[in-house]
């Protein structure tokens, strides 16, 4: 099955959800010209990394974002990997990815498991507890958030659940852009799956972000890559390539987990 993907590599206004909602809505309207099957947004796109003010800007149960994606999915007849938002839960504020299918039904959710100390996440956020698995059109996918890509064992745990594409939403700074590219390509090669990675563009008071959203095939070939600025990156993925790669080099049956 083929899916047309649109990554909304948006700039994000620091701590200003109202403006970010307006801006995301405008980009969705523009992306609709390409009629994407799956639309992807970046990490913490409603607030950016304004972590000091999350107590006021985080949404209880991510309710506003959920209503926004429910409407957008039906309006644009697109599945949404709705980036992540600051989500007030009983355990604290989580960095939560939302997935809505094109009928407007929530298809998945995942709260970031690995908190990134270099950007103070551990001081403001509560870590998630489960995997980011979901299905769209009877295909298995996974959602990962930014720093998660530095944990190959976490990504592999999803691949072992027969995932065919991993969606990574991020706010990855430009200083470590070469890590971003290398890690994403490695995760695609070693798990023989598509990797669709949507980063943000622009700057906040502490960081300039890399952009360079990417779509990578199961051979590790970059089939689409954005520049540094705001951009809608589109690409088509054909999941038959996952089956082909996995039968040509059968790493999943050749594994020797009894020795690991
Ligand atoms: N938002 C993040 O998780 C950033 C991760 C990052 O920059 C890294 O180098 O890892």
From TrEMBL:
<dbReference type="InterPro" id="IPR003010">
    <property type="entry name" value="C-N_Hydrolase"/>
</dbReference>
<feature type="domain" description="CN hydrolase">
    <location>
        <begin position="3"/>
        <end position="239"/>
    </location>
</feature>
<dbReference type="GO" id="GO:0016787">
    <property type="term" value="F:hydrolase activity"/>
</dbReference>
<protein>
    <submittedName>
        <fullName>Carbon-nitrogen family hydrolase</fullName>
    </submittedName>
</protein>
<keyword id="KW-0378">Hydrolase</keyword>
<dbReference type="Pfam" id="PF00795">
    <property type="entry name" value="CN_hydrolase"/>
</dbReference>
<dbReference type="InterPro" id="IPR036526">
    <property type="entry name" value="C-N_Hydrolase_sf"/>
</dbReference>
<comment type="similarity">
    <text>Belongs to the carbon-nitrogen hydrolase superfamily. NIT1/NIT2 family.</text>
</comment>
<dbReference type="InterPro" id="IPR001110">
    <property type="entry name" value="UPF0012_CS"/>
</dbReference>
């Amino acid at each position: 099955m083929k899916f047309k993907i649109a990554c909304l590599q948006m700039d994000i206004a620091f701590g200003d959800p109202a403006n970010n909602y307006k801006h995301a809505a405008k980009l969705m309207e523009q992306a609709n010209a390409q009629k994407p099957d799956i639309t992807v947004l970046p990490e913490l796109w409603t607030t950016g990394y304004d972590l000091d003010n999350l107590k006021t800007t985080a949404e209880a149960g991510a309710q506003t974002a959920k209503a926004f994606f429910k409407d957008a999915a039906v309006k644009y007849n697109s599945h949404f990997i709705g980036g992540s938002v600051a989500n007030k839960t009983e355990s604290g504020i989580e960095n939560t990815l939302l997935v809505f299918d094109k009928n407007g039904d929530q298809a998945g959710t995942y709260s970031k498991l690995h908190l990134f100390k270099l950007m103070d996440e551990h001081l403001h956020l509560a870590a998630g507890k489960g995997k980011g698995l979901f299905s769209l059109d009877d295909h298995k996918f996974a959602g990962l958030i930014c720093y998660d890509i530095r944990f190959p064992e976490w990504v592999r745990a999803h691949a072992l659940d027969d995932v065919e594409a991993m969606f990574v939403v991020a706010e990855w700074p430009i200083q470590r852009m070469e890590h971003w590219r290398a890690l994403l390509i490695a995760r695609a090669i070693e798990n023989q799956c598509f990797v669709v990675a949507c980063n943000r563009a622009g700057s906040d008071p502490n960081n300039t972000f890399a952009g360079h959203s990417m779509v990578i095939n199961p051979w590790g070939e970059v089939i689409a890559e954005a520049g540094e600025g705001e951009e809608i990156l589109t690409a088509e993925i054909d999941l038959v390539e996952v089956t082909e790669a996995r039968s040509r080099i059968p790493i999943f049956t050749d594994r020797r987990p009894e020795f690991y």
